[in-house]
Amino acid sequence: MKLSSKQPTYASMRLIAAAALAATLTFAPGAVFAATPASASGTVHAASETHQDRTEQRIANMHAKLKITAAQEDQWAKVAQIMRENAKTMDTLIQARDDHAKDMTAVDNLKSYGDITDAHADGIKKLTPAFAALYSSMSDSQKKDADTLFRHRDHKRGHKMSKAK
């Protein structure tokens, strides 16, 4: 069968898949990986701070910046609980990745990245309705603070990433 110039080749599909994976890992909200699977010497090392540790800091920081009221505490507790569950899931997947880093094939590596990015996306999907309920109860001032907090968080992350390159 003759391929037309508009028909994707195996190589072009691999390039597209690699670009999509790179974009997902680069632009996903929140840190996707808590540890580098291998250092330059090839040894595996764990991060000193887990997603769960950073999540507790983020929960306290967001609570303060959003000026959560006593009336909003129940809704906030639901948001915080989902954040904790998401962090635990991410830590479990990252630990499994770290534990098997030396023995992973390239395909295993891609599957591991996929599992982590899927879990991250699932976590965002769980968090969104809980946060939306909280957001709807917020004053205009709180909503403005939330909008700014989320907007600046993405901006700062992109800035840190560009410096790291």
TrEMBL record:
InterPro entries: LTXXQ. Keywords: Signal. It holds the Pfam family LTXXQ. It comes from Paralcaligenes ureilyticus. It comes from the Bacteria. One of its GO terms (cellular component) is periplasmic space. This is LTXXQ motif family protein. Residues 1-34 form the signal peptide.
